[in-house]
Amino acid sequence: MSTVSRYTGLIEHYRDRLPVSDDTRIISIGEGNTPLVRLENIPREIGKDIDLYIKYEGLNPTGSFKDRGMTMAVTRAMEEGSRAVLCASTGNTSAAAAAYAARAGMTAFVIIPEGMIALGKLAQAMIHGAVVIQIRGNFDDGMRLVKEVAEHAPVTIVNSINPYRLQGQKTAAFEIVDALGRTPDFHCLPVGNAGNITAHWIGYSEYAGMSTQACAFCGGDCKHPCAAVSDKRPVMVGYQASGAAPFLRGEMVDHPDTVATAIRIGHPQSWDQAWKVREESGGWFDECTDEEILAAQKLLTSKEGIFCEPASATSVAGALRDIKAGKIPEGSCVVCTLTGHGLKDPDTAIKQCEGDMLTVDAELDAVKKAILDNLA
Ligand SMILES: *Cc1c(COP(=O)(O)O)cnc(C)c1O
């Protein structure tokens, strides 16, 4: 006897909570179903009794959570007869758009800020065959141009202003509740455009049977059942990089800058929604310096074996600070989203470890000495 259980992506898995019909052709590369890993060493090291998990979104097909939204956005673009998709991107959206468009047989146009894309992300957009348009400007310039040009060309925008993106991304919240058998007390995320924190709130709200906000986003054509799966929603905490922190400044930032290129955004597209999430969940925004972000990235790699890109580490940098300060109390169940894989940005990783490599002669004595000198 055999039971077939091949995982075929998040739309199939959460189909009754997503805006698809029985004959929708689903464009999937097996996204979602990412591990929820419990941190073992870091909580012990900081001496706090905390149930701390990371949601390892870097293990999606193109290495970031953007795949969750892209499977939904490209599936719907295809269904609506569109032949091309368009996005502005700090890198990961373009990688996902390129891959899902390839899978669908569509053309992807991606607008990226010249010189500000991590190497892995650029490689992805190019190898998947996207038309890559570099602009002499930043992400916010790209976003403005995308909105303008979409009025003059037959293309579907697949940035997170496309409501289907958030519908796909809300499934990360479903997976967390399904995996834990409960809702976490706190959920911490890095915030750029604030689409992801908004999408998680939609997901948690639906699972708690409180989906009024979700309906506003999906235009009323998603079919979330009313049945509640969980009995509460978490406190949502959004962390930004200090050089790109409009939610901390209380206004748009015109020249955002941070080593965390994925959240190098000064004009968030989901501005109003994110403030609402903060208010409804009783959460907060805070900021982390580039030094704190890189230190958290290094801590995760060296203490837990988990490699995320700098932007992703912002959630852990902020959460650890708030845990140490008691703002997130001991005994809490906390989930931090690690939004993208560390291999996306090898340059920043190597720069962090400069001088750590040993170079010796190709001789037994030299290699032996290198090992004995460095035994812990
Ligand atoms: C897109 C992205 C973010 C920011 O998500 P928003 O929805 O724009 O807030 C954070 N980290 C990584 C790695 C990303 O690719």
Outline the secondary-structure elements.
Blueprint: H1 10-13, E1 36-38, H2 41-46, E2 51-56, H3 66-79, E3 84-88, H4 92-104, E4 107-113, H5 119-127, E5 131-135, H6 139-149, E6 156-157, H7 163-169, H8 171-180, E7 186-190, H9 195-207, H10 212-218, E8 235-241, H11 246-249, H12 271-281, E9 284-288, H13 290-304, H14 310-324, E10 333-338, H15 346-352, H16 364-374
Parallel strand pairs: 2-10, 3-4, 3-6, 4-5, 7-8, 7-10, 8-9
Antiparallel strand pairs: 1-2
Helix pairs in contact: 3-4, 3-7, 4-5, 7-9, 8-9, 9-12, 13-14
The structure holds pyridoxal-5'-phosphate.
Which features does this protein show?
single chain, 376 residues, alpha/beta, 6-stranded mixed sheet, 16 helices
Describe this structure in words.
With 376 residues, the protein is α/β, with parallel strands linked by helices. The protein contains 16 helices and 10 strands. The protein has helices at 10-13, 41-46, 66-79, 92-104, 119-127, 139-149, 163-169, 171-180, 195-207, 212-218, 246-249, 271-281, 290-304, 310-324, 346-352, 364-374, and strands spanning 36-38, 51-56, 84-88, 107-113, 131-135, 156-157, 186-190, 235-241, 284-288, 333-338. It has a 6-stranded mixed beta sheet, with helices on both faces. Helix 3 (66-79) runs parallel beside helix 4 (92-104), helix 4 packs parallel to helix 5 and helix 9 (195-207) crosses helix 12. Mean pLDDT is 94; it is low at 213-217. The protein binds pyridoxal-5'-phosphate.
Low-confidence stretches are 213-217
Structural class: alpha/beta
Shape: globular
Bound molecules: pyridoxal-5'-phosphate
Rg, rounded, reads: 21 Å
